[in-house]
Amino acid sequence: MALVAFLGAVDVLFLVVSLVFDQLLRNAGRPDLVGLRGENWLIVAAVVSAGVVGGSVALAQPRNPVGWLFLALSLLMMSAGPVDAWFDYGLLARPGSRPGSAVLAYIDDVTFLGWLGLVALVLYLTPTGRPLSPRWGLAAKVTAAAGAVGFLLGLVSAGPLDPPYDHVRNPWEVSAVQPLADHLFGWLSLVVGLGLIGGGVSLLVRFRRSQGDERRQLLWMAFVVVPLPLFVIAAFVAARSNSSAWTVVASAGFVMLIPVAAGLSVVRYRLYDVERLLAATVNYVLLTTLLI
Predict the structure, then answer these.
(1) 156 φ, ψ to 5°?
(2) Cis peptide before 179, with omega less than 30 degrees from 0?
(3) Whether 81 contacts 66, CB under 8 Å
(4) What are phi and psi of 61, to 5 degrees?
(5) What is the DSSP letter of 292?
(6) Which of 125, 152, 180, 229 has a Cα at 20 to 30 A from 94?
(7) DSSP label of 150
(8) Rounded distance, CA 112 to CA 192, Å?
(9) Dmax of the chain from CA atoms?
(10) Residue 93 and residue 262: Cα distance in Å, rounded?
(11) Which of 270, 267, 257 is nearest to 221 (CA)?
(12) Prior bond to 229 cis, omega within 30?
């Protein structure tokens, strides 16, 4: 209970810090760098949905990893706000005014692997906390490993960031592993994307094999994973074409739909058996958001 409350408080703190940093960017004459605007509120909606479902599942079934995965997803996504604002201020609004801005920019550039990996693991492990079979379990492990290795390789990358950060050099660059590291990073990113799609297939197979109440519990989850490949492809295409708005929309699409579907399954069909906790958590989140 205490850990879940602490993680929820950290989420709220990240949101408050993001709002404060956004105001600093406005005061510096760079409202174009403000993070919490337009399509980025989809990310906030995804964070709230993941946090609510994750907190409810973690409280009711602390041994089920799905709840903790949702909470980790919520924290990772919400932390992007302060991180983005920090290096935007230090690299663009007031160059040189924020220490570690270049490092944070490169870290932020590879955190999408964490988003993808966590959502994939949720799909592989819903609702029992265990994969459907040893083979699906191996696919989940490969996805997680590819994401972890890809993240580490991204931290030492020598490749340029997308504009307007293309003038930034990575302070953690390791020339000895280039260009092999950048090539491997691209392939590992593809493996993680395919692993995410595999997680959706795993859930659909679980749905087809289920019967009765279990089948009804998985109904919403199975329904939203059908467009999952389209979202994944759209996110990769948007990222390649440097379309930040469409990248956010596509990424938020598959990240947000999964926890929302889990919440609907809880309310309608008692997925994870946490419907009462979910209702209480929703009320708490709404009141906290209103207060902020």
Answers:
(1) -110, 20
(2) yes
(3) no
(4) -135, 75
(5) -
(6) 152
(7) H
(8) 10
(9) 61
(10) 40
(11) 257
(12) no
- As given in the structure block, the two tokens for residue 154 are 């991204």
* Nearest to 144, CA basis, from 72, 219, 206, 208: 72
Q: For residue 272, give both structure tokens.
A: 């994870």
Using CA atoms in the order 283, 117, 128, 139, what is the torsion angle rounded to 10 degrees? 170
Walk along the chain (292 residues) in steps of 10 and give the mean pLDDT of each run. 74 83 86 74 75 79 85 87 87 87 88 87 86 93 94 86 84 82 88 89 85 74 73 68 62 70 62 52 55 55
Residue with tokens 């160059």: 95
What's the distance, CA 28 to chain centroid? 29
pTM here is 0.82
Q: Write down the residue that tokens 């009141």 correspond to.
A: 287
Residues in the chain: 292
The token pair at 114 is 């964490």
How does DSSP assign 155-188, residue by residue?
HT--SPPSTTSTT---TT--GGGTTHHHHHHHHH
What DSSP string describes 74-137? HHHHHHHHHHHHHHHIIIIISTTSSTTHHHHHHHHHHTHHHHHHHHHHHHHHTTTTS-SSHHHH
Question: pLDDT (tens digit, 9 = 90+) per residue, 30-76?
Answer: 888 887 776 667 677 777 778 877 887 787 778 888 888 988 988 88
Token digits of residue 88: 């935007």
Q: What is the DSSP letter of 274?
A: -
Query: Whole-angstrom Cα distance, residue 52 to residue 278?
Result: 7
